[in-house]
Design brief:
By secondary structure, this protein is of the alpha/beta class. The protein is built from three helices and seven strands; from the N terminus they run βααββββαββ. It is elongated, with a radius of gyration of 22 Å.
Length: 154
């Protein structure tokens, strides 16, 4: 067999990584969410330089992929601020709900800002979809439970 048909591995080549999924939903962000995107871009850019200096080609490739993702998310970000005078739940609002005798508060935020453990839920989440458009005093279904909206704050 001719060596012309044998592909020898090249140590300078890094296998192409699949791009991170950007999704098709609008990229709504809060002002805080926009600053978090900027922070991710800065942190990834610094990490690329450190990995490049260390000669870690795999890390450089992975970080470049992440940097492309965060830059794309930043370029499509649409800052949305809730109407402070609104009586209905909107994107960006913090919503207090009473369920099983306890009051829990959730803020409706963008996809990249979501952190349910911190009370930050994506506007695409089932919980947020139940809350948006509702008013204080209304009840919503959350899983098998019913909850009452007790507070809405911008």
């Amino acid at each position: 067999m001719s060596v012309a048909f044998v592909k020898e591995p090249n140590e300078d080549q890094v296998e192409a990584l699949p791009e991170r999924d950007l999704g098709t939903d609008p990229n709504f962000v809060t002002p805080r969410g926009l600053s978090l995107l900027d922070r991710e871009i800065a942190m990834n850019a610094e990490a690329v330089e450190r990995a490049r200096a260390a000669g870690d080609k795999i890390a450089v490739a992975m970080l470049h992929r992440d940097l492309r993702y965060w830059r794309a998310r930043r370029s499509t970000a649409q800052v949305v601020e809730p109407d402070a005078d609104s009586d209905t739940v909107q994107f960006g609002h913090a919503v207090g709900i009473r369920r099983k005798g306890r009051v829990e508060t959730y803020r409706i935020v963008g996809i990249d800002e979501a952190d349910p453990a911190q009370g930050l839920v994506s506007y695409l989440s089932p919980l947020a979809r139940q809350l948006v458009g509702k008013e204080e005093g209304e009840s919503v279904r959350i899983g098998p439970d019913t909850a009452e909206i007790v507070a809405i704050e911008a």
